Amino acid sequence: MSGVRIRVVEPDELGEGEIEAWRELRAKTGAPANPFMEPEFTLTVGRVRPAARVAVLWEDGEPAGFFPYEPGPLGHGRAIGLGVSDCQGAVLRAGLRVAPRELLRACGLSAWAFDNLEAGQTVFLPDAAEEFASPVIDIGAGYAAYEEVLRAQSPKFLRTTLAKERKLGRQAGEVRFVFDERDPAALRALMEWKSAQYRRTGRRDRFAQEWINTLVRRLHETRTAGCSGVLSVLYAADRPVAAHFGLRSRTVLSCWFPAYDVEFAKYSPGLILHLRMAESAADEGIGMLDLGRGGAEYKDALKTGELRVHEGSSVLPGARAALYWLSREPSRRAHSFVRSRPRLAGYAQKALNQLGTLRGN
């Protein structure tokens, strides 16, 4: 890293020139304009996670790279917003030579964990342990073209979903969709539905964590070209029945928190919502919906392709790295073992559902 100087700052200490340089460097990478990789996401995380830091790489007197992260005990670092961030990595000038160990050392880290490392992150990619699909919906040619793709690859799914939408209108009242809802009450409803879903399926309730709760509320108020919070709501007779909160750039909508009112489950309101989101996003000039890592039947039905993301960690050899490995790697390998065996994964899901039922009682 000869000639490269590294300055570590809190996100709010970044100057306007540095923030603009971040945006310009990101635009030149050629990667999809994922809003999680824009400075606004890191800035907002920094305001709810005080430990958050950004390593600013300087070369020839100019900002040449940005590496956001969160340090932890014993130098065990993690991607910014790990647990909710769906795209992770560094933003670097093309051709900038960066040694991951030197970068970690400059940040005071013994390890840096990631679970949604963006494809093309050559600095950290050699340290990836697993690769996952992140399904996407390509609406670059418009919604009508996307619907034609669905008619060819998922005809029953499309036909059934549209029929349920009509039935919802007949039985529950006029169906209305708002792509960018600003009403905080709708956001509260979504978060309540999502918390109930987490409990119902035996999973940890993300919205029970105050920093995530606050982060989502603040991002709902964020309005910039590269990263804006978008709350989409499906109404029936002016009653919200399904909603989604995600982040958008000019060309990408990163899908994040979808949920629905279980009283309307028979109408599959979540699927109707996704179709209307795709339609409205195309009208907004968005070319891609990123459905996020993880398999699900609805994603298989909706997707037109996939991106790749990676999980793993970069480490500095030494005692602190050994402690990190012992605290994280056995658990990660156990999860990987279960995921790679569908029958075992089915048993695990059944156990989680039973746990959710017990919690509900």
UniProtKB/TrEMBL annotation:
Pfam family, one: Acetyltransf_6
SUPFAM superfamilies the UniProt entry points to: Acyl-CoA N-acyltransferases (Nat)
Domain BioF2-like acetyltransferase: 158-299
Domain of life (superkingdom): Bacteria
Protein name per Swiss-Prot or TrEMBL: Cellulose biosynthesis protein CelD
Organism: Streptomyces lunaelactis
